[in-house]
Amino acid sequence: xxxxxxxDVGGTFTDAVLSGPDGRMSVAKCLSTxxxxxxxxxxxxxxxxxxxxxxxxxxxxxxxxxxTNAVLERRGVRVAYVxxxxxxxxxxxxxxxxxxxxxxxxxxxxxxxxxxxxDCFEVPERVNSxxxxxxxLDEAAVVRVGEEIARRGVTAxxxxxxxxxxxxxxxxxxxxxxxxxxxxxxxxxxVWPELREYERATTTIMSAYVGPVMAGYLRRLTARLAAxxxxxxxxxxxxxxxxxxxxxxARRAVTTIESGPAAGVLAAAATGYPDVISFDMGGTTAKTxxxxxxxxxxxHEFHVGGKGSFGGRRAGTGVPVKTPAVDLxxxxxxxxxxxxxxxxxxxxxxPRSAGSEPGPACYGLGGEEPTVTDANLVLGYLDPASFAGGxxxxxxxxxxxxxxxxxxxxxxxSRAEAAHAVHEIANASMGSAVHVVTVQxxxxxxxxxxxxxxxxxxxxxxxxxxxxxxSTVVVPAYCGVGSAAGLxxxxxxxxxxxxxxxxxxxxxxxxxxxAAARDLGVSPDSPGVSVTRSADMRFTGxxxxxxxxxxxxxTELAGRFSARYLQxxxxxxxxxxxxxGYRVRVTQAxxxxxxxxxxxxxxxPAGLPGAGTADGGVTRPARRxxxxxxEAGGYVEVPVFTRAGLGEVAGPAIVExxxxxxxxxxxxxxxxxxxxxxxxxxxxx
Length: 685
What we know:
By secondary structure, this protein is α+β, with helices and mostly antiparallel strands. The chain contains 16 helices and 37 strands. Among the domains are: about 5-70 and about 215-245, Nucleotidyltransferase, domain 5 (2-Layer Sandwich), CATH 3.30.420; about 75-210, no CATH class; about 490-590, Dna Ligase, domain 1 (2-Layer Sandwich); about 625-680, no CATH class. Strands 13, 14, 15, 20, 23, 24, 33, 36 and 37 form a 9-stranded mixed sheet that branches. It has a 6-stranded mixed sheet with strand order 3-2-1-4-11-12. The chain has a 4-stranded parallel sheet with strand order 6-5-9-10, with helices on both faces. One of its GO terms (molecular function) is 5-oxoprolinase (ATP-hydrolyzing) activity.
């Protein structure tokens, strides 16, 4: 009897989901342990296993923020950079776009480059864009550079030579020489062989920067799981929603930077609605993504380690990374986001988070600053006794004290007004992320369904959706652990890319598919293995390209490019085109049990606290409590339901899950639908 486990490590909580052979799921949630994330993982996995034999687990899928945090917190290894003679200054010079708070700062200092100038080296060699060797590699110079790097105690080297995507022979020879002197050598022709030297260089640097950290972490995690009896292979979610082995994730760590958010988007896509805005609000951040025709939007470049970039779409707000990733907008607005009054007397919320240590004031773990979670507790949206499935009782008194001391008092307003203002500011911050992935890209969000999940998402979703005219919000089963559940729907996959001009597409695709299949340990022709091909195209003479699905028909390929160009830029343009790059994604379908979402857990028996009943579509609440809704005049007694006991009810109302809480504002209705989803619908305005 096989079981699968999905584990998602977030900034505040670590979530685990256990799926049995019949598709039934068990869930667990515990505080993340930032000093060593494996401590929280083992705690969550042990809890979700219960009485299940650990040896029955045949698959573990993991989403981690380790790579992201290593970049943001500068906790990667020291890296040396080696490039072609004459180009060593590209990385120290870098690029930077001033965000709003920096724009008028007369004392502004740009962020430090990913590699210090003194650790950038160059070697004599030169290859042109067609792969022709213009100057042979000076191997003696490479040896001297390697000896200097080793003398400095640097343990990782990133090598990115000019036009190595066209001819990688010099990079490979450098790797052989440096490999005898330095423990880790990463070359761009193996990481991501695309044109645009700066982006290729930074992607290679980031891979060298976080690779040793990721490798050590995954070895430690595998050992910790084995200690509790789980010997199943560990797989890691990549940024594009695929799954790779732990060994491959260690070698290509840069592809895991958006690991956790990608899993949540898969969960939103699995609801079956064609056009969706995924809305994931956890303890630290809120993330949104557009899903069209059931497929998440994918970007091939994003920026990490910057600020003001809403997840990396804005060039110059971080270090560019060229690897496929779910196209997300992200803001620092989660349940743990700290609310504060700035020197000008304005109320703010986030982006700083209380995290899991010390956490919101109401956790009673030493935190004294008010957070969005404290505000929601004061407003009556949360039940202190049932938070996180009842495993972490909350203190309303501590939340009220924090709001009074840090917000209501300094602002001269009531406690309820201060708490509601925090709630609204969080909604506005999350609305800005939705705006980035829709309105700023010419998409009318009113025609989409919002799928809300995460520990805090369902509390805010209806208010955020209403800002954009979105009248339907879907809250799926297991919404509080949506990312962990989404992990189990990921297939084993990996990507390969190559920039090539005037190449034979058949030969390029065949070589890429063979290399990608080798990464997975399969053959492209094996049963259950699929190969998806696409091409990077542009109008002749333009500098930037768009990715379109491949077809062997030149006319149809040009038509697909024109349609994509119109979708992205809003301009119907015709003209000669050229192909500048080729991409393949090799996928091996993972064996999984049939999903059984109709039973998200045992409902509370009728008549007991927490249970509701629905007879003939008429829903009777489990109980009532006071909650704040300004449309109703402030605090009012509202009905509280469980998901299992819900039929159809008009707001204001509250629906409580084991891992999350759904707030139904006035003007909205909630009903239980198929697969135990709760559908929120706003009345026509």
